[in-house]
């Protein structure tokens, strides 16, 4: 492991401000539409809300809500959303026996398309796909990226934007939730039970209770196990009941993703209020001290995601390290590690940075996309 620190020291007594968050947002959005313009055929991968044109369409879908009048290169958010939905994702065949979740291109495209068009037939097409995949994939495929928990996040997109479909969507959600609860623990990769947001207990519990709070009682014990695993410095290990040398402070593994999840589902577990409040406070301290990461800002492994674990002026302070000028200076002098892949994917690239600026500029607490969002 490299001895180089993963983060910049964050010991300033004065909180930094960002001069113009709107300008930063516009820069990111402009970079996206010029660097990865909507085109058919699309030159990259189709990975649902994780990466690819549907993930960019999802960003612009939310821009229609936060900045409906913002024009980027001659188009508004709705027009860009339509353009990125027309890049060939609709031609992806449902691949029965393969994984489902936020990376599933077939389901993700239909969720965003239904959200934009309010087309009930598109909703039904997506629900039919969910049913087919649920019956054909492995019983243990239940995490966020590739499993049933991630499918719950996609279904919430539809439920929010197409409220008249709520009844039928809720029934499919219940089917998935009952399966997830029955087939705990949720294991991933090497058969281990992971703890955090992307592949672990926190991410799975969060998707369940945001989709149907009535199941919270059946998962309270699982959440208590997570709280028991918090380290003295406020962070969490990657796997349940196992220590590791990672020390990661990022959304994917570590305190930022856990804190974002705990904050979002705190109201679902009133019996754990004091423990949750204490864990959140300790976790935020860890994010504040070690979360200004040297990686080029992104949602999954960077400042853009970590700031969503904080509140108010602390969010803006973290994003002061993510301005265009500061990042470019850091890349030039070697203090910032430049991203070398997936530059235009939502979780690892420019769209995720745009999401963070969208949150900061609008003042709307949108949550972490496809994780702690209602939509």
From TrEMBL:
Zn(2+) binds at residues 252, 300-301. One of its GO terms (biological process) is carbohydrate metabolic process. Keywords: Metal-binding, Zinc. GO terms for molecular function: metal ion binding. GO terms for cellular component: plasma membrane. The keyword Ribosomal protein does not apply. Gene3D superfamilies: 1.50.10.10. InterPro entries: 6hp_glycosidase-like_sf (IPR012341), LANC-like (IPR007822). This is Lanthionine synthetase C-like protein 1. It comes from Phialocephala subalpina. The lineage of its organism: Eukaryota, Fungi, Dikarya, Ascomycota, Pezizomycotina.
